[in-house]
Amino acid sequence: MGFLKKLFGGGQSADAQFFYVRPGGCDDVIRLRINLNNDLSKNDDGTYFVRKVISPSNWRCDRGGEINLYFDSSKNFIEAATTKVELVSKEDYDAWIASQQLT
User: What is d(CA 79, CA 56) in angstroms, rounded to the nearest whole number?
Assistant: First the structure.
C-alpha cells in the first residue's frame, strides 16, 4: 500500500486523485488530476474507469499517448493501462519540476 501512496500521493482532496505520466521518449512528466465525482464512468459491474489522452504542451516533447485508469465500486484505484506513456511517481514529477526551474 505504501507503493501506491508514493505513486499517487500528495495534494489530494476527497474528490480528486493525482496521477503522473511520462510520454515515451520524453523527459517531461505530466500531472493528471482525476475528479472522482465527475471524471469517472461507471461500468455495468459497478466499477469505474476513466480514459485520458495525454498531449504534452512542451515544444520539446510532441509525443502523446493515453491512459486508462480503473477503480473499484468505492472509487479506489485498482490499475492503469497505458499506451505510449509511463506511469511514474510524484517524486519523479517533483524532480522534473525542479530540473525545469534550473534551466
Answer: 23
CB-based contacts of 14, cutoff 8 Å, min separation 6 = none
CB contact at 8 A, 35 and 52? no
- Reply yes or no on whether the pLDDT at 60 is more than 90: no
List for the chain the helix, strand, coil content (%; round to 5). Answer: 20, 40, 40
Confidence class for position 59, pLDDT limits 50, 70, 90: low
Whether the per-residue pLDDT at 14 is higher than 90: the answer is: no
Whole-prediction pTM value? 0.79
Taking the C-alpha atoms of residue 33 and residue 80, their distance in angstroms, rounded to an integer, is 14
Residue type, 34: I
Whole-angstrom distance, CA of residue 49 vs CA of residue 43: 7
Which grid cell sits at 49?
474507469
Q: Collapse the DSSP code of 8 into the 3-class scheme (helix H, G, I; strand E, B; otherwise coil) and give the result.
A: helix
